[in-house]
Amino acid sequence: MSIEVCNESGISVDESLIASVARFALDAMHVSPAAELSILAVTEEAMSELHERWMEEPGPTDVMSFPMDDLADESRRPDAPDPGPALLGDIVLCPEFAKAQARAAGHSLADELHLLTVHGVLHLLGHDHAEPDEEREMFALQNQLLTRWRTAREQEAAAEAQRRSDSAVLGVVGLEDH
Fold this sequence. Notes:
This protein is an alpha/beta fold.
């Protein structure tokens, strides 16, 4: 799976963690490993232009999703060759706009960007929140994916800390044996 993250926002963001949460969500949703995703962080001005052009709403917003290819092409013949990489779409984030939301929610900008990335991925996969039932379903899935990703990251960090500790102990024990 190819995920490209480009930050043109002028605000420092951890691009590797944004790619990580996107990859986790796509894997959890069983998206083809041949999929390609582009994530772009932009200024409020650039987001305003996109928001007005594509949604016909004034001002900036936090995240927009632009789906491209349909990864579930049921019309293909069963004996057709596997298609090449499919462009899932683009997610556009606006860190400057997201800052206020992060403050209001009582968490960091990084946490808000991770949430918005998962939100954007779900939109690319056809989820919506226009109706109350859709909103409950989409936001529950979003929260579940974020919780699972954070838990996986914590477990990876704990395992790495244990490996470092084990290496330090084994290194010291190994020296004492000589």
